[in-house]
Amino acid sequence: MMSRFDALKVLFKYTENIPVISSCGNTSREWASLGRRDNHLYMVDTMGLTPSVAIGVSMALEDKGFKKCIAIEGDGGVLMNPNALASAAYLNPKKWLLIVFDNECFASTGGQCSLAGRINIAQVAQGFNLEAIQVEDLDAFEHAVRTSIEKDGPIVIHAKINQENQKNPFINDDPVVLAHKFSQFLTQ
Amino acid sequence: MATFRDLACEEIIKGIEKVNPDYFLSIPCSTVGPVIEHFEKSDKVISFPVSREEDGVGIAAGISLGGKLPIMLIQDTGIGNSILAITTFVQAYHVPMLILVTRRGGFGEINSAVNLFSEPLPRILDDAGVKTFKLDYRLPLKEWSTAITQGAQYARDTHRPIIVMFNIKGGAEQ
Ligand SMILES: Cc1ncc(C[n+]2csc(CCOP(=O)(O)OP(=O)(O)O)c2C)c(N)n1
Ligand SMILES: [Mg+2]
User: Fold this and answer.
1) Measured between alpha carbons, how far is A161 from A178 in angstroms, rounded to an integer?
2) What are the Thiamine pyrophosphate enzyme TPP-binding domain coordinates in residue numbering (chain A) (predicted)?
3) What is the pLDDT of residues B106-135, one digit of tens each?
4) pLDDT tens for residues A94-105?
5) How far apart are CA B51 and CA B37, in angstroms?
6) Position B171 in a domain
7) In terms of CB atoms within 10 Å, which end of chain B has fewer, N or C?
């Protein structure tokens, strides 16, 4: 099974000019360790909100050149705020791509068991009438990312990953700076 | 004869139209039904419901980061559903956003539970440092639309969430 870090490395290759919003905890830390870019928005807290913010960005960017706005979220985060799935189903944001890294645990806080071991998140997304692609290995993940970027959304990629965390420094930048860079990237 | 509520709703509609947002997000409160119905029919603004205020705050924040203007209208208990998003995202990341909030609790309230959140809410928001302007019967209704436009401007100028709260039931300060 792939690690979150392996999958993020793949995603990094394809998203040089695509806004990407990453969830709190190890996801943002691993993502930032690959290289800081202004098209990244690192969430330092507000667990579960990443997909919602990405819906808003996708809507605001409807007439702009960006192909997508990508949200990276964990299984814990998605199940904390499944409301974003409802909104994506209702609003039908064409540029919204949600990548769920599902390790069936709260890896960032030490690997405690989450609810995802007994819930299939791809099926939950499909239950909301969303297109969902389930992947279990790196090749399938890469293929899903490449094709989803070229296609109208909303799309959910449900990626099963192992429970590994990379050791990376905390992101304790001033959030104002993080938001400013991202917003400038989107609107200039 | 038009009631205080009817007139208040007209003023709120007028204020929102003066701000001319790109998006109008809402979860209804019985007191402002006419406002939401008005924007559902409007072709000048994209109006949509959300399922939970926390999600709405996230969506509105994304819209704002993307350079468009959102306004969200919710009842005050919805702040309870979204205060973490308002503080640790909107406030922390300096995202400008106007949130219009209708007041529950206090004289005229018949619900036997909401008072337990609505009454302490102003103190909760003060402690959290979320700037809130409160409109009630003491501010002439004809000033309410101006308060809404100023709230939107203040959110932009001070780079943060601004709450404008309306007590439409009238009566004494809670
Ligand atoms: C409201 C709230 N509760 C708890 C936490 C602590 N917390 C931070 S990251 C995290 C785990 C997130 O799990 P998941 O979304 O599955 O991501 P993973 O770390 O497994 O990749 C938790 C519980 C938090 N940040 N916010
Ligand atoms: Mg997890």
Assistant:
1) 27
2) 43-158
3) 988 999 999 999 999 999 999 999 999 999
4) 999 999 999 999
5) 17
6) no
7) N
